[in-house]
Automatic annotation (TrEMBL):
It comes from Cinchona calisaya. This is NAD(P)-binding domain-containing protein. Residues 48-73 have a biased composition (Low complexity). Residues 44-75 are annotated as: Disordered. Residues 106-314 form the NAD(P)-binding domain.
Length: 356
């Protein structure tokens, strides 16, 4: 049975808490339905914060494979309109866990370890690319190689990303990252430019054309890195480089979904083990706010981000889409596929309504 954990404060967050207002606002709980808000955000179990208008966006969800490598954006990027390719779809093509081999890159990180634990608990085979494969044993214990494979690799080094690493891989979840500001995690030049841009580019370039979906964890604010308060967080380029990584994914020709997280809460659980990971909960922050258009400002539990990544693998209408995600107090979709589908679908609908 899942239990609530007390977590130590996270001290090396890429997004400083002080530069953002505490959003979304807290408002009374209402019944647990998927709700639409005029602000263009979809959420479960909680009324959406109001007052967020949305800008126009444009769409390009079917780019050709590696047709255009991204160049450094030097101005604030206008967000794209995201049209749902199948807004009424209720059927998904891939639901058999045994048919998947999910490559997780960044599986030793806060979101990544929750992704891996969740895949293991669902009997979905996973392969990890880790700079230090030993970390897998301390985090996930000794696992059957049929269920969990670990290979050594650094995404900054294209020569590390050998074709054999990708054999049999059906899906990819990339949740690599480093700190936004200089820290020990930059040691050895592991900077946002190297990880969020070059690393993502190298990884995506190495993926086989057979990959059914690549999920990239990115950040809210990437389209506004020249605007306050985002420009503060972008002092060392993290948002700019994340946007470049996003653009490369969008243009790679593979089916993709991008999940832009708000400030991350809960974990990382680096001093814990698999049993603890599997018991971790998002505490009271289980209600999920999903939006499109880079308008959401707020926090999200790492557990919720991990779940969104795993759900998106199987929900066809998330293909070619970019979402922003927050979590707030209240009950949420948990691991219910239908509820997640509704959330994603309503995010599309609201985005289209906001621009019609
Ligand atoms: N923290 C926030 O508030 C926030 C907000 C929005 C978005 N995000 C983004 O959300 C994602 C997940 O965040 P998180 O806090 O869960 O991540 P995290 O704990 O910082 O983990 C980062 C992961 O990336 C791996 N990694 C770093 N450099 C690598 C490299 N050169 N090659 C291969 N792997 C490398 C790390 O592996 P090692 O174990 O080898 O270091 C680790 O597994 C990141 O992209 C982050 O930028 C974070």
């Amino acid at each position: 049975m899942a239990s609530k954990l007390a977590f130590p404060p996270i001290t090396d967050l890429p997004i400083p808490t002080k530069i953002f207002p505490t959003l979304p606002q807290r408002i009374p709980l209402i019944s647990l339905h998927v709700l639409c808000s005029s602000s263009g955000h979809t959420f479960f179990g909680h009324k959406s914060p109001s007052g967020s208008s949305r800008k126009v966006a444009s769409s390009s969800s079917s780019p050709s494979r590696l047709s255009s490598a991204s160049s450094a954006p030097d101005a604030v990027v206008e967000e794209e309109i995201l049209h749902s390719p199948t807004p009424d779809s209720t059927q998904d093509s891939q639901n058999d866990p045994s048919s998947k081999l999910v490559l997780v890159v960044g599986g030793s990180g806060g979101v990544g370890q929750l992704v891996v634990a969740s895949l293991l608990s669902r009997n979905i085979k996973a392969r990890l690319i880790l700079r230090d494969p030993e970390k897998a044993t301390s985090l996930f214990g000794k696992q059957d190689e049929e269920k969990l494979q670990v290979v050594k690799g650094d995404t900054r080094n294209p020569l590390d990303l050998k074709p054999s690493m990708f054999e049999g891989v059906t899906h990819v979840i990339c949740c690599t990252g480093t700190t936004a500001f200089p820290s020990r995690r930059w040691d050895g030049d592991n900077t946002p430019e190297r990880v969020d841009w070059e690393g993502v580019r190298n990884l995506v370039s190495a993926l086989p054309p057979s990959a059914k979906r690549i999920i990239l964890v990115s950040s809210i604010g990437v389209t506004k890195f020249n605007e306050l308060p985002w420009s503060i967080m972008n002092l060392f380029g993290v948002l700019k480089y994340k946007k470049m990584g996003e653009d490369f994914v969008r243009n790679c020709g593979l089916p993709f979904t991008i999940i832009r997280a708000g400030r991350l809460t809960d974990g990382p659980y680096t001093s814990y083990d698999l049993n603890t990971l599997l018991k971790a909960t998002a505490g009271e922050r289980r209600a999920v706010l999903l939006g499109q258009g880079d308008k959401l400002v707020g926090e999200v539990s790492r557990l919720v981000v991990a779940e969104a990544c795993i759900q998106a693998l199987d929900i066809d209408l998330t293909e070619g889409q970019i979402y922003e995600i927050n979590s707030i107090k209240g009950d949420g979709p948990g691991s219910d596929r239908e509820k997640w589908r509704e959330l994603f679908k309503l995010a599309h609908t609201q985005n289209l309504q906001a621009h019609s």
